[in-house]
Amino acid sequence: MSLPAHLHLLIPSSSSSPSSSSTSNTYLEARLYLPLSRDAYRNDFPISESTRSSPTPYTSLADSLSHLNVKRLITAAHPWSKLGGSMLDPVISYYLLSAVFAHDRDHGQDGHTAVLTFNARGVGKSASAGWFDLGLRTDAEDFAAVERWGAHVLGGVKEIWRFGYSWGSMAALTASPPQTSSTSSSQPRISTMLLSPPYTIFRALTLLAPKSFTSALNVQTQNTNSGTKEGRVWLVYGTTDEFTSVSAYRGLNKEGERTGLVSREIEGAGHFWRGEDGERLELVISEWLADA
């Protein structure tokens, strides 16, 4: 299977020092998709277009990527690793990427957005994780670390967007607030899409998680300025989701109580977004990107 040209890397996890190249650090396998054709990459970048390539340690990059002038970074988290979830899930590696780059191209914003995906611990070449480690804490911490790394190497990022699919929606929602760089004088704007979060399962795990899904959603949406689109959360789900009932999803925004929550209900779509459902998802992602 081929992928858009990208950098396939090993980058620091939340338990590593972002500036250290020590072999004692723990790393996460990541793919950074930049809005360029393969020919536009410099020769010293470790370019991949394959799902079977081997990741290169991030220290091999000659310098930062600030010269690319990327303004928006989207970091994406995948479904639960214990059930086979990875950054190569088609929702992320195909539908999300297709929607993002098509949207930028159609709006005359070529080069505007980069997409950063990563494997959670225990997946692929990422650091190992025990079978009983549900990732309820480390997933969010690693998400924030990956996001910080991406913003650092890209430089000049003005918008930090988050995409969490299925189990990954918890990490995208509960990760610590984004930052661009230590020298930035202003915080980036943020927007989050939660796609098919297994809300019923999250609710059952409330006692085990550092933050519950509902409380985190409350904080995120209530801190949103009702007069702007800053910090809004998009909740996207299908009416035939195999893990969460449509009534449970609708209850998350009962009577529009959460002013910072935008709900999109896709009639007949399931949890896995295959075929025609995936094509409809691309349209919703494009709508989300336009919500700036």
Automatic annotation (TrEMBL):
Name this polypeptide is given: Alpha/Beta hydrolase protein
PANTHER family: AB HYDROLASE-1 DOMAIN-CONTAINING PROTEIN, ALPHA/BETA-HYDROLASES SUPERFAMILY PROTEIN
Organism for this UniProt entry: Naematelia encephala
InterPro entries the record matches: AB_hydrolase_fold
